């Protein structure tokens, strides 16, 4: 079946369920992980992945799109084991690029440098960049590029397994009925899930929140 089309030949709508990966060892160490650092799920993360897989079991998932990082791929694999949906890696769905910060072990100084940019974005300073990393606009463009590739497939219901940083910053910018303020006071938890309808309308990506599980 083709994905839903309505009100014009250039409008494409798809049910996309966004899932943050299960607990990883980087969650325990506080390391930043974009590309250099790449660690697997913890035993707790595996338990969480199995649990979210069971929740998705009866949702008729057509396909799973995953960040290339181990913690996302492993979460996607558990979901695939239960739903029998195939997985495709999408580079655009990896965690936000913190640049030079990823090269350093966790410390108060490194965390403070991260929060300076993160808080700046949330206060409207979207052009602030991580040193040798990305700013808000490049992050959002990357997420939209990944979603555009998903939306041009023939699937009706898919899962996107990604990361807390990129999901928190980008998904509220795409949904008409959800604000980032909620996520700034209620972190998107490991295996937290947002059920959405996303569309391309007149070349723009937009959507609505159907429900969430966190």
From TrEMBL:
What are the protein's UniProt keywords?
Isomerase
Q: Which InterPro entries match?
A: His_Pase_superF_clade-1 (IPR013078), His_PPase_superfam (IPR029033), PGM_Phosphatase (IPR050275)
For this protein, the record's Gene3D superfamilies field holds: Phosphoglycerate mutase-like
Tell me the organism's taxonomic lineage.
Archaea, Promethearchaeati, Promethearchaeota, Promethearchaeia, Promethearchaeales
Q: What protein name applies here? A: Phosphoglycerate mutase GpmB
Q: Indicate the enzyme's highest-level EC class.
A: isomerase
Q: Name one GO molecular function term.
A: isomerase activity
Membrane recorded as keyword: no
């Amino acid at each position: 079946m083709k994905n839903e089309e309505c009100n014009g030949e250039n409008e494409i709508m798809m049910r996309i369920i966004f899932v943050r990966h299960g607990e990883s060892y980087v969650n325990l160490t506080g390391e930043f992980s974009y590309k250099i650092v790449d660690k697997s799920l913890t035993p707790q993360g595996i338990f969480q992945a199995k649990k979210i897989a069971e929740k998705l079991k009866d949702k008729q998932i057509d396909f799973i799109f995953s960040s290339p990082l181990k913690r996302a791929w492993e979460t996607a694999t558990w979901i695939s084991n239960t739903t029998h949906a195939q997985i495709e890696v999408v580079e655009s769905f990896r965690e936000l690029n913190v640049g030079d910060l990823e090269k350093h072990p966790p410390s108060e100084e490194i965390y403070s440098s991260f929060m300076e940019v993160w808080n700046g974005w949330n206060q409207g300073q979207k052009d602030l960049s991580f040193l040798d990393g990305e700013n808000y606009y490049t992050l959002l463009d990357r997420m939209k590029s990944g979603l555009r590739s998903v939306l041009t497939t023939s699937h009706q219901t898919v899962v996107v397994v990604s990361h807390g940083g990129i999901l928190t910053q980008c998904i509220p910018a795409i949904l008409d009925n959800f604000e980032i303020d909620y996520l700034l006071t209620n972190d998107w938890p490991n295996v937290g899930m947002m059920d959405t309808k996303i569309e391309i309308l007149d070349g723009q990506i937009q959507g609505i929140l159907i429900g969430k599980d966190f």
